[in-house]
Amino acid sequence: MGDGNTSTRDRPMRVGIVGLGTASTDIVPEILRHPQLDLAVGCDIRAEARTQFTHRYGVPAFETVEELVSGKSVDAVYVASPNRFHCEHAVIAASYGKELIVEKPLALTLAECDEMVAAAAANGVRLLAGHTHSFDAPIQAMEDLIADGVIGEVYMVNNWYYTDWLFRGRLADELDVGLGGGVVFRQAPHSVDIVRVLAAARPVSVRAVTSSVDTAHPTHGGFVALLTFDSGAVGNIVFSGYAHFDSSELTFGIGENGYPRSPDTHLAARRRISALGSADAEAQYKNSMRFGGDQAGQWLKSGDRDPSSQKHPCYGLTVVSGTRGDLRQTPDGIFRYGSGEWLEVPVARAPLERAAELDCLYNAWKDDTDLPSHDGRWAKGTLEVCLAIIESGRTGREVSLHHQLLPRTAAAAGAGQRR
Amino acid sequence: MGDGNTSTRDRPMRVGIVGLGTASTDIVPEILRHPQLDLAVGCDIRAEARTQFTHRYGVPAFETVEELVSGKSVDAVYVASPNRFHCEHAVIAASYGKELIVEKPLALTLAECDEMVAAAAANGVRLLAGHTHSFDAPIQAMEDLIADGVIGEVYMVNNWYYTDWLFRGRLADELDVGLGGGVVFRQAPHSVDIVRVLAAARPVSVRAVTSSVDTAHPTHGGFVALLTFDSGAVGNIVFSGYAHFDSSELTFGIGENGYPRSPDTHLAARRRISALGSADAEAQYKNSMRFGGDQAGQWLKSGDRDPSSQKHPCYGLTVVSGTRGDLRQTPDGIFRYGSGEWLEVPVARAPLERAAELDCLYNAWKDDTDLPSHDGRWAKGTLEVCLAIIESGRTGREVSLHHQLLPRTAAAAGAGQRR
Predict the structure, then answer these.
(1) Burial class for B98, CB neighbours closer than 10 Å (0-12, 13-18, 19+)
(2) What is the per-residue pLDDT across B372-392, written as a single tens digit (0 to 9) for each?
(3) Does B394 contact A at CB distance below 8 Å?
(4) What CATH number matches the domain at A137-350+382-413, 3.30.930.10, 3.30.360.10, 3.50.50.60, 1.10.3720.10?
(5) Are residues A266 and B337, on separate chains, in Cβ contact within 8 Å?
(6) Please, which residues 214-233 of chain A have a Cβ atom closer than 8 Å to chain B?
(7) Model ipTM value
(8) pTM of the predicted model, to two decimals?
């Protein structure tokens, strides 16, 4: 792939989905909506999930990944199984020559990442790191403005997010750090990627403090991380999944899905979970939102969902500071604060989250080109930062990074300079 | 003092002011406004400053601190001379038995702090650390709510401030870190004190990155600092004095003086300084705002100053997160985000900044009691954190802290428990 071959594929890409949990209930509709994607097959260990999936979409669902990939009817596999199975499932799918999208985090260890990257390379398939908000159009637009030198040299990138992650309904697996649970494994990839993309440099170290302060949900629920970059820039991430305060107050009322957030979102979430009264009842509630459950597809779907009210997603507040200006997201684009002027730059709406990734992989597959960004090596860097946050939180020490890449535009600029 | 003696002084406290720079142009009006303070005398090495001061207020002004304090007409001295003279001037004044308020930072080294604390103790005078925004009524009200357990255990305190400090007009001294210049010495005491007060614990280490990215103003212009606390809480401070973005956007449009900030404040500041064209012209501009200059008292006085529009000061955005709730400032008080409710707590207006300190020292002097907070030992802790920010920024290493006190309410609670 990516060898200058200009052939294009003119048929839809057939996608199989591994893991029919709540993530898949977001992914499937995007596959169905995409004119060039076909939902081909699903896979889950839960019989009731397979039954409901097949009944609803008229496509087969298997118990194992091997069964899913052994047929010839699948071009690409979306790995949305529990985090601890990402590596195993991706390697199997790669060995059958399937293109890959893998949910964040890519895996639980750097060795697993290496195994996945190697398997993809050996089998000539693409490995796309799925679903981080660094795909969002305003983040990509900021990256482009920075690459164009609009704000000079970046010296500071900050992302702050106060949300109700711990109170959305969680299974035991999602809280067990050893299984890839907690907010560092499951949420930090978003902010880490946003900060890495916008710093336009390689991070070299992480110092972080993690917070675990809710006995009913024993896991990492919050963290603060300070990242240093080889450019001298500093990145700063604040995340609280325990938050009573809602940082959408700082982002024009817009949440991470682009919809306005009701001011009582956090209160309602806490009330709902606290009314359940036990971890078992909470698991039952969460299970009802997965395929096989009677509320499948309804998770986080409450509140205003009128498409006309949807704006660009705001994964917390992001502010990028450069020597000649600062950038910040708005509902419809970016504020660009310069030395001589201050203006809003509109950003065209673009596919979001799952749709963006699916589109990204589809285009690379169709044209047989490299992924433009967010490949397996990039996602290994994301995981390295997440693991460093956890380690620094545990040891109280700074952690050096050794597997970091430049983001897309900075790498291109560097390549340009070397020419 | 503070020995249970209940005598009160029933005459005004006579205040002398050392250093007739821009700070003094804020301090003098507060002395004049206070019904129980008399402006007694000033002191500055600049003859034109002394002349204008005496002409305007009808009180003497001397060239040296010794002359200022050797008379019997002064009870207290406000040390507002350049940072590198704070220690020398405070020690002289203490040796003459004068009560002390010293501008932030208390001094340039911990040894100087020790000398000042010892001089105050030896001479039986109070040493009040002046002017940090931790005196602001909403910060004090948050401290009280936290002490009352309203938000449970604090696990995270964040303060973010994007402002135009570098573009307000600066003298060479104010930029020379060796002389106590730059934003860490001159601004960090505000955010460090806010975070220490609200964490309700002792900080134990600092990891920070400092930014120096404007060749026309070669100094620390920004920093990010991560503070760990003995409670397990984390404090996070972001400061940019280069900012194009104005963080009053995050604080209801209110700035650190409590007045609404015009959205073009940063643009106007940059235009003004850039039109001056040279460091000499900038120094001339700044000098014109000090006593002796033709614009004395006008520094930072532009914009809306209608007293009816004044709100509580917002020194950037401060969010405190506890296990049972979060707190955030509003223009008229505090938002308290709880698990079951979300409400605004009004906070009564109180004396601000210089007025607050003067009032604090006056009350302790009148009643012959200890200072309630912000004494010399506390300010030594503030300086220790600032020095740690500078050191960590230079070395890239974490710095341990050894001279930290609990804030007022946490110390009182601890004393209560020990009873």
Answers:
(1) buried
(2) 999 999 999 999 999 999 999
(3) no
(4) 3.30.360.10
(5) yes
(6) 214, 222, 224, 226, 228, 232
(7) 0.93
(8) 0.94
